[in-house]
Every structure is written in structure tokens, then in C-alpha cells.
Amino acid sequence: MLTPAAAVASRHIPSLLNLLSQCRSIQNLNQVHAHLLVDGSFSAAAVASQLLASYCALSAAAGHGALRLFDGIPDPDRFMYNTVIRACCNGSCPQEALRLHRGMLERGILPNEFTLPFVLKACTRARAWGQARAAHGVVVNLGFAGQVFVGNALVHSYASAGSLADSRRFFDEMVERNVVSWNSMIGGYAQEGDTREARALFGEMRRQGFVEDFTLVNLLLASSQEGNLEFGRLVHCQMLVSGSRVDLILGNALVDMYGKCGDLLMALRCFEMMPLKNVVSWTSMLCAWAKHGSVDAARDWFDQMPERKIVSWNAMISCYVQCGQCREALDLYNSMQSQGLAPDEVTLVAVLSACGQIGDLTFGKMVHL
After folding, report:
1. How far apart are CA 299 and CA 323, in angstroms?
2. What is the pLDDT of residues 148-184, one digit of tens each?
3. What is d(CA 97, CA 87) in angstroms, rounded to the nearest whole number?
4. What is the pLDDT of residues 3-56, one digit of tens each?
5. Which one, out of 7, 223, 268, 269, has a CA that is 20 to 30 A from the CA of 276?
6. 286 vs 56, higher pLDDT
């Protein structure tokens, strides 16, 4: 295998592309990039494109390096635009994705069916509803309305904006639908509290054979995140009516949903009915007690756990902090360390918060170091 310097010096395009695709860290990629700049091989379109793709794959939120690289390419093609728009959209800079899309149009480069779903996703994440409608116009003008991935992005964008009539109209017009299409539309109704429509559409989804276990899990997770107890109950009822087998993953999702939505009794009932439980099951129930403000019950639950992982310790420590029992939180942190468990970021945030509340700067400095 050629070294980075030898591969670059050879100017053999396949070797360069292979070298870039094998970079597993930003440090490696920066080294290869430096060799390319010195040698002049960066000017090859295929090399520039692969280099950009590698930066986007390795750096979160597309990374400043990827954006700087892209801005330095004199004539980026559609593939390059798609690569960096997707990375920005999936990262933490959806507004940057929209800026890039505008630049793409200004250059006369038309988006395709791979560009538009990420543009619409960026509009949704940035809550740029006017730009979402403009992107919808581009979809129609370019004839991509029949593409299922583009259609899904439109349904989700309008539903997220609260424009359920527009979302449903487009959903009904879709020639092809998949599980994502149904989930987006049902989730939109659930988000707006329209359980009647959500229930009706969920029933239709089942009749057409689209509902699988992972769909149910996703719907329960959506209910948990939104705190939408009514929709979570709807999904659970549909599971009971259809005779869905509640395995470990579905059981955990039910306990998590009821716990986070504040129905402690149902969370406990679902937990007790699970034939098989794991650390996630126990931790979800611990979090349910904590959310209910029952710190003593949460600690009893913690002490009964047959297995504890860092997430379990974090949940109990955070419970103490939220209830103002900061000394107990620090004692539990010491106990965790004595068992050889290393803290993570969640642990440290909770412990430092406890130190701040009781003014224990010495302990806080020790944790920080």
C-alpha cells in the first residue's frame, strides 16, 4: 500500500480516491489534504469531491473544515452541493444548508431528488416555513413530487409547521408511500393533539399492512419526546386490539412513554407485565419514579436493580439533584467511583450542579480536574 505522500506524488486518481476513503480521523484527513495542496492534485474534480465527502463524513455538523474546503472550490458540481448540504442538515447548521441551496440555484445548478429532501429537512429544523413552501415549488416545477423520499420530507415539513391540511393533502396525493410517510402524518396529528385523526390514520395504516414493531416503537418514542400521553395510549390500545406481542424493546418503549408522560401507575403495570427485563427497563422505571418526585421510591428501585450501568447511576444522581438532595447525590457519585465506574458528561453536569447548589467548591474543583 502506498504511503499518503507516495499516493499523492503518483497522481494516480484511483489511488488518491482509495486513500481518502480510508481516512478514519480528521488528523489523517488533514495530512492527506496538506499533501494534495502542496502537490496540486486537489485540482482534480474527483479528488476534490472525495475529499469533501470524507470531511463531511468525519466531522460533526459538516465541520468548519468541510465548509471552508467547499467555499474554496471554484466550480462545485451538484454532487458536491448535495454532500455538504446533507452534512449541514444532519449536523447543527440547517441555516448553512439553506444558504448553500440558495447559492446552488444562483449558480444555475438544479437540485435533484437527493438534494430536496435535505433542503426540506433543513427548512423544518430551522423552522423556515417560507423557504419550505418555496422548496415545494421547486419540487413541483422539477417534477419530483412523485418521489417518495421527497414526498415524505414535504409531509413532515408541513406537519411540523402545523399546516396539517396541506400535509394531509400532499399525503393523500402521494402515489407511493412507505412507513416514514405514515409515521410523519400520524405524528403530525399527534403533535397537534388531534387524536381522532391520528387514530383513524393509524387504523388505516394497520389495514394496509404498514405497521411493524419498529413503527410502534418509533410512535411510542415520539409520544415520550412530546409528552403526548393521549397518543401514547392510542398506540398502546392499537397494540392490544391487534394482539401485538410485547417483546423487550416494545415493553421498554411502553414503560418509557408512560413514565415520561407522567402516568406512573401504567408505567409500573407495563414493567410488571414484561416477561423479560434489562437495565433499560429498570432505568426507565427509576426515571418514572424520579419524574413523579418520589426520590425515596426511586432510590429503593435503584437498590433493587439486578444490574446497573452508567445511565442508571446518572438517573439516580440527577434525581437527587433535581429534588435538592445534593449531599446524597455526591455520596452516590463517590459510591459509583468506588465501584470503578468512570463518569461521563451527564454525570459530571449533575455532580457540578450539586456542588453549585450547596457551594462545595472544593468538591467541584476535584470533579472538574
Report:
1. 12
2. 999 999 999 999 898 999 999 999 999 999 988 998 8
3. 8
4. 554 444 445 567 677 777 777 677 777 777 776 776 665 556 777 777 778 778
5. 223
6. 286
pLDDT digits (tens, 9 = 90+) for 79-123: 989 999 998 888 878 999 999 999 999 999 999 999 999 999 999
Going by the DSSP 8-state scheme, the letter that residue 74 receives in this structure is: S
Report in angstroms the alpha-carbon separations of 309 from 254, 282, 294, 299, 321.
21, 11, 21, 15, 19
User: Do the beta carbons of residue 226 and residue 260 sit within 8 Å?
Assistant: no
Q: State the chain's mean pLDDT as an integer.
A: 85
| Interatomic CA distance for residues 16 and 226, integer angstroms | 47
Q: What backbone phi and psi angles, to 5 degrees, belong to 111?
A: -70, 160
**DSSP label at 43?**
G
Q: What are the CA-CA distances from residue 217 to residues 212, 237, 256, 281 (Å)?
A: 9, 14, 11, 14
* pLDDT at residue 241 is higher than 60: yes
CA-based end-to-end distance of the chain? 43
Question: In one letter, which amino acid is 49?
Answer: S
Cα–Cα distance, 20 to 41 (Å, whole number): 13
Give the whole-angstrom CA distance, residue 362 versus residue 343: 18
Residue 61 CA to residue 84 CA, distance in Å, equals 10
Whole-number Cα distances in Å, 51 to 42, 57, 77, 104: 9, 10, 14, 19
Rounded to whole angstroms, the Cα distance separating 55 from 73 reads 14
C-alpha cell at position 143: 417534477
Joined together, the cell numbers standing for residue 35 give 499533501
Per the structure block, which three cell numbers stand in for 119? 433542503
| pLDDT tens-digit map of 9-23 | 445 567 677 777 777
> Residue type at 114?
F
Question: Which has more confidence, 59 or 71?
Answer: 71
Grid cell at residue 21 = 476513503
The span from the CA of 167 to the CA of 307, in Å, is 45
CA neighbor of 263 nearest in space, from 241, 231, 295, 219: 231
C-alpha cell belonging to residue 66: 468541510
